[in-house]
Design goal:
Elements lengths: L2 E7 L4 H12 L4 E6 L6 H4 L6 E5 L6 H14 L4 E6 L8 H14 L4 E10 L12 E7 L2 E6 L7 E4 L1 H5 L12 H13 L2 E12 L4 E5 L2 E5 L2 H14 L7 H21 L3 H16 L6
Parallel strand pairs: 1-2, 1-4, 2-3, 5-9
Antiparallel strand pairs: 4-8, 6-7, 7-9, 10-11
Helix pairs in contact: 7-9, 8-9
């Protein structure tokens, strides 16, 4: 079973991203690095990693378009599985092999897995990211404690390549926020696949640029420009019948609360509010391409 990994980079710190890619390269057959930066200087730094392909985009095409470039590369090479990772994620040794083992165990008991991934922990706080709104219950398979979820975070997720032919590619019009969840919901509707988090596998993950608190609950602080995509994409996704109602309701309250949070504590506050209302305005327009 050939496994390729897709990692999308964007004006990354060379030292950190090379370390991340080196860890990943030891776990898979090939790493496809899709670089959304304006230049291709990262290519020279990757020379020491033999099993990689470097695809510079020379512009920020968004996470979905970059992932699709990596997916297309591995589909053309006949790879069986694709693993997704982020430029700042250090994958623990043996993770991919264990994910494959869980995937096979799920297939044996006819769970039709669409993706398996480790439990993501906040790299800054050491706490697991909450998943109540996404959880469908716990499953025990061959000694593994799993949580079935409605969607899997793209980092680190192991997905059969055939699903990108059967369910379609990532939605490029979303650009960045909601890309992984929308694809999972779509694959679940079209192919009946299910998604699982391995609670006994952990990976440190960074969301946003810091952490804040709303009503006693921790939130990830994101830069102002991301507000546009979060609010626009939320309104677009709410129109889709295969997006869970629980997610729509939970995030509706969350994004309403964020308006007040960033309006009071955002720095610079004017930039946050501008991008939020731009996103709401764009989101109210019907998106025919998603």
């Amino acid at each position: 079973m050939k496994t390729g990994a897709v990692i999308v980079t964007y004006h990354s710190d060379k030292q950190d991203v090379i370390k991340s890619i080196s860890h990943l390269a030891a776990e898979v057959d090939e790493v496809c690095v899709v670089d959304n930066s304006d230049d291709d200087v990262l290519g020279l730094a990757l020379a020491s990693i033999s099993n990689h392909t470097y695809l510079p985009q020379y512009m920020n095409r968004g996470i979905a378009a970059a992932q699709n470039a990596g997916i297309s590369h591995f589909l053309s090479q006949g790879y069986d599985f694709i693993l997704f990772s982020d430029q700042d994620t250090l994958i623990p040794e043996g993770t991919v092999g264990r994910l494959h083992g869980i995937f096979k165990a799920l297939e044996v008991v006819h769970y039709t897995p669409g993706a398996v991934c480790p439990r993501a922990y906040n790299a800054a706080t050491g706490q697991p990211y909450p998943h109540q709104v996404n959880s469908l219950g716990e499953v025990a398979v061959k000694g593994h404690r799993l949580t079935e979820v409605t969607y899997a975070m793209s980092s680190i997720s192991l997905i059969p390549s055939r699903l990108f032919t059967e369910a379609g590619m990532m939605a490029e019009t979303l650009f960045i926020d909601g890309v992984d969840s929308e694809w999972c919901w779509r694959a679940r509707q079209k192919q009946g696949v299910r998604f699982f988090v391995a609670e006994d596998l952990h990976v440190a993950h960074h969301l946003g640029i810091g952490n804040g608190v709303i009503a006693g609950k921790s939130i990830s602080i994101t830069p102002p420009y991301r507000m546009y995509y979060q609010y626009r994409n939320y309104l677009w996704l709410c129109r889709l019948s295969y997006v869970p109602w629980k997610w729509k309701c939970y995030n509706g309250f969350k994004y309403l609360a964020k308006i007040f949070y960033y309006g009071l504590f955002g720095t610079p506050r004017k930039d946050y509010l501008r991008e939020i209302f731009k996103g709401i305005y764009s989101g109210m327009k019907k998106n025919r391409d998603l």
